[in-house]
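sanity check this:
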Amino acid sequence: MLQQVIDRRLSGKNKSIGNRERFLQRYRKQIREAVRHAVSGRSIQDIEQGENITLPRRDVSEPVFGHGSGGSQERVFPGNRDYVRGDHIARPPGGGSGSGAGPGAGQDGSGQDDFEFRITREEFMQYFFDDLALPRLLRTQLLPDVPEWKSHRAGFVSEGTPTNLHVVRSMRKALSRRIAMGGDVRRELHRLEQSLSLLLRDADTPGNEIMGLQAEIETLKHRLRQIPFLDPFDLRYRNRVNTPLPASRAVMFCLMDVSGSMNETRKDMAKRFFILLYLFLMRHYEKTEVVFIRHHTQAAEVSEDEFFHSTESGGTVASSALTLMHQIIQQRYAPGEWNIYGAQASDGDNWLQDSAKCRALLVDKLLPASRYFAYLQVAEESQTLWEEYALVHKSHPHFAMQKVTDAAGIYPVFRELFKKGSAA
């Protein structure tokens, strides 16, 4: 069956989608670095917009072929009045140390501008999240509603499409059929041929007996020729069956401190971090659920809109958020069926006696059930919560912690926490 794929994507005037995709693939590394540099000055509102990418001319230069020095060359110079055919022209002075323009210069010796082009919103987000992944993600269980399937070989069948025809198996089947169908006839033919050979040696054998034997031999040969070389019964096709696969179901818990010590600058940095995390999850993991938890002295599960826009203040009891996360896991997300992740953002200011409780909750209840847990402190001071979490970080490789003090540091910290291979 002939299959034809038609690309009906709209292309602007004088633009080629194919050439653009090849260009983006060829200079993937340079574009990725330019995207990382571009996001450092972006705000929350324009994080998903496109970008003008500038690449140095030296990074997009193409190799060229040129003639080497020496050898015999024939050229036609217009307006020649001094030379005739056969004359030898001396090589111009200067050799290989000419005074030509350096790399990146134009024909007139002037420098060339860097190459600039614009990538779309989708391309920008693709390059930004290109080398990020949820650490230690595993396939957990079979999903009855939307299962994932894997095709694998399951022997051979007698019916199928021509593309799945197994030629060797079919020819082997045809050969065995011909041997089985013609076995008795060949044995009888062999016996008659031996008898005819003996009769031909005897000069007194009647001619009609020889002719009768020859007629029987021809009849048997004709029967053998009637056996088809390849019969539809012989055809064998590769059989493939689909089996359901375990699906990678994951849940991300976002825990944000909204106490009075979290001023607007710190809250803005925490929101930037969680916005990046939310965009990353929505783009790369369709079956990932997100649970939003805000806390001061008490913790509450809230909606996405409340998480990013609601304003509250009060004291700080960080353990309330961890306790609520543990309760939700017990009620809705069994560790054997879900990949559980956690991300917490706080300024580290916490009641002294509560920080030790946070460490105990992580070590005893949350980390054994989680695939990965990341803590972001949006303050430079090493508060009691940071000191307790530092003890957890030493003994648990799937617990990560970072500090950030300004908005420009959110992007590199986010990439460090969720880059591929960030947890063993």
Q: What stands out?
A: The first strand starts at residue 51 and ends at 55.
